[in-house]
Amino acid sequence: MAIPRQQKETEEGVEDRRSGRPSSLLSTPLPLQTDSPLSWWGVLLAFFAFLPLSLQAQKNVAEGVALPLPEAASLSDSLFSAPDTAYIGLTRVGACDTLLLPITNHSLFPLLIDTLQLFANHSSLRLITPFLDTLTLQPGETRNLLIEFCPTDSVCVDGSLTLAGNFLSTNQWIYHQVGIRACGGRPEIVVDPPQINFRPTRINSCLVDSFVVQNVGNYPLQISQLVTSGGSFRILRPSLFPLTLLPDEKESIVVEFCPDREGNIADSLAIWSNADGGAIYRPLAGEGVIVRLLLPDTLDFGTVVVSSCRDTLMVVQNNSPLPITLTEVSLTRGLQTTPFTLLENYPQGWQKVLKPQDTLQIHLRFCPSDTGKITSDNPVVVAESEERWETVLQGVGRLPIIGFSTSTLNFPPLPIGRCRDTILTIYNFDTTSVSLITADLIKLAGAGSFEFPDPIPLPLLVKGMDSIQLRIRFCATEEGETASRITLQFEPKSEEEIEIRGSGLVPVIWLDTTHANAGANAMLTLRVWPGGLINQQDFFLKLRLNPDALFTRKVVAAGSERYSQSNDGVVEINGSHPSDLPDDGTIFQITFLGLSTGKPVNHVAIEEFDIADSILRWDTLHGVVTLSGCEVGSLPGVGKRASIRSIQPNPASSNVTLTYLSPEGRVSTLSLYDYLGGKISTITLPVGSGEPEEYLLDLQEFPRGIYMIELVEREERHLYPLLIE
């Protein structure tokens, strides 16, 4: 007999594992009659109605189709309630989830459940609640059945839990089937790119790049921690983590590279998640760069002449692996004017990109206005957006190097009334031109005068490495020294001084003293001191000499001359001398033949001397010729004297033929003396016949030289020089 029961709908709360919210379990009245065959057919129909659901779920899992959550339903009447379907949810592969299925006895009689079976298409779904043979629910009792799901792969599992029993007092049967679905899943992490290589980055600058993390699995990916070693790499937006990514979701991990040192820097990003394998590591690499611009700390222009300029190049080179964008080249000027300038214009907004190893040439000019070392108050500045480089400029200003042909200009002594010109050469030893702007003569002492005989066109340009000449004239007006100073001023500002000196004098004229041997030549020289100072003029000279000792042979003058000699020993010379006499002042030389030593000291008196228009001083009025030789003298004789007429050499031998004249009836002797007056031999000639006679002299034994032959007859003596060649 069927037990009537009230049909109603009830809601039973079942806690969801994921959300914690109760899900509605709808119970549908299931009238069962234990004594009716139709009731069993209803159980079978319910079982086969659930079977297609399980098969379709497996197919969906195999094809990768996400399964929809089945709607919760419940079997409920006034006697019994249990859910119709249950979903365990997505469970991590390798982990386990459980599901509590509540069943409640609402009747007043104990409920004996003798059938409790779980059917599933995979062993990962199983019933945990112990069940021996029967399970009894007392009136009003609720019993939770524990279902466990431990997936081993990312698949969905479908199953059903079958309940069957009866109420003990009424013997009313119940049958209920709960459809169960569970899916296994695992997170899978993909990080792209495999690594990040930052391009070279300046120290204290930063670059940003990112990894993209994606969950390609079917289970939520939980990124719990991101770790780097710190230093140059750091994670931006750290507040995003820990982070959960659902399947197919992706997120960016932003990494910032701020190098703290120069050179290659390596690190790795550790991504900790619940994916298999634990943390994964992605390499990080970058290069820290110090921007280096090669330029000199100091640029030296060297030494430059004041008021001139020198240009030079300053080369700037990018010596770093990064391009540098220069935005400024400037030479900041201070309050004072600076001799340094930039030759190019670098306006505001100027830019120049220097690739690695590229260079920039900066043209600079140095124009010193003063002497000494000059250093710029403000350096040359080369700048970019973040860096500034400076170069100090320096140079030395100097006066031009002016040289002169002499440091002191000395005129030779001049006779009074005489003028003389000389040349002062001014050299410019610099490559830049200078200008002579003033030339002054300042007298220091003396009565003479200095002047520039030629007009000087001031300013007078002296080109670089060139010279100019100034003519200077000195005129002697009295005896004594005259001194002056030449002051020369140049532009660029430079002043030089040259001392000049000259003297006036009265020339001195004299005959010197000489010495000769008997039979040899004696030479007297007429000199003027200082030589070379008397203008070209005619002169007249009258000399008186001893005719017995000296005989004029030759006159050698500096100019043209005419001379004559009288028998009484007077020599008259008329001649002229050139304007430039030799340095020793020689006007002329006169040669005498020394005939005897009867008067060893022979004076040559200057009886008269005149040079037109010249003031002369006479220190010595005569010359002296000292003769040495034989002791005999040549004295005046009476009547016809013995004499040597000639000496003829014999070409065939070393003999000579002496032709002599000896008075008739007289006996003469012939003596031979050497050039010092020593007697060599004496022979007696035959008695004279009064006619010229010849005598053969054998000179074979005598060496070359000057000899004196003496013919003596009583008191008469005659000397004749003999040259043996």
Name some characteristics of this structure.
725 residues, mainly beta, Immunoglobulin-like, 6 domains, six-stranded mixed β-sheet, 4% helix
Helix count from the secondary structure assignment: 1
When the domains are counted, the total is 6
Overall average pLDDT: 76
Low-confidence stretches: 1-76, 629-640
Q: Estimate the strand proportion.
A: over 45%
Biggest sheet character: 6 strands, mixed
Describe the protein.
With 725 residues, the chain is mostly beta strands. The chain has six domains: 11-185, Immunoglobulins (Immunoglobulin-like, Sandwich); 189-289, Immunoglobulin-like (Sandwich), CATH 2.60.40.10; 293-398, Immunoglobulins (Immunoglobulin-like, Sandwich), CATH 2.60.40; 402-505, Sandwich (Immunoglobulin-like), CATH 2.60.40.10; 508-628, Immunoglobulin-like (Sandwich), CATH 2.60.40; 643-724, Immunoglobulins (Immunoglobulin-like). The chain is built from one helix and 61 strands. The strands form 14 sheets. Strands 14, 15, 17, 19, 21 and 22 form a six-stranded mixed β-sheet that branches. Strand 21 (263-273) and strand 22 (280-289) form a beta hairpin. The longest helix has 26 residues, at 37-62. The radius of gyration is 73 Å and the shape is rod-shaped. Residues 1-76 and 629-640 have low confidence and may be disordered.
Q: In a few lines, what is going on in this structure?
A:
This protein is mainly β and 725 residues long. Helix content is 4%, strand content 55%.
Q: Secondary-structure map with pairings?
A:
Layout: E1 11-15, E2 22-26, H1 37-62, E3 74-76, E4 80-83, E5 85-92, E6 97-105, E7 111-120, E8 125-127, E9 135-137, E10 142-149, E11 156-167, E12 173-185, E13 189-192, E14 196-197, E15 201-202, E16 207-215, E17 221-227, E18 233-235, E19 243-245, E20 250-257, E21 263-273, E22 280-289, E23 293-294, E24 298-305, E25 310-318, E26 324-326, E27 328-331, E28 340-342, E29 352-354, E30 359-366, E31 372-375, E32 380-383, E33 388-398, E34 402-404, E35 408-410, E36 414-415, E37 419-428, E38 434-445, E39 449-451, E40 460-462, E41 467-475, E42 480-491, E43 494-505, E44 508-511, E45 513-517, E46 521-529, E47 537-544, E48 550-557, E49 561-565, E50 570-577, E51 586-594, E52 601-611, E53 617-618, E54 622-628, E55 643-649, E56 655-661, E57 669-673, E58 679-684, E59 692-698, E60 705-713, E61 716-724
Parallel strand pairs: 5-12, 14-22, 15-22, 24-33, 35-43, 36-43, 44-53, 45-54
Antiparallel strand pairs: 1-2, 3-4, 4-6, 6-10, 7-9, 7-11, 8-10, 11-12, 13-16, 16-20, 17-19, 17-21, 18-20, 21-22, 23-25, 25-30, 26-29, 27-32, 28-30, 31-33, 32-33, 34-37, 37-41, 38-40, 38-42, 39-41, 42-43, 44-46, 46-51, 47-50, 47-52, 48-51, 49-50, 52-54, 55-56, 56-59, 57-58, 57-60, 60-61
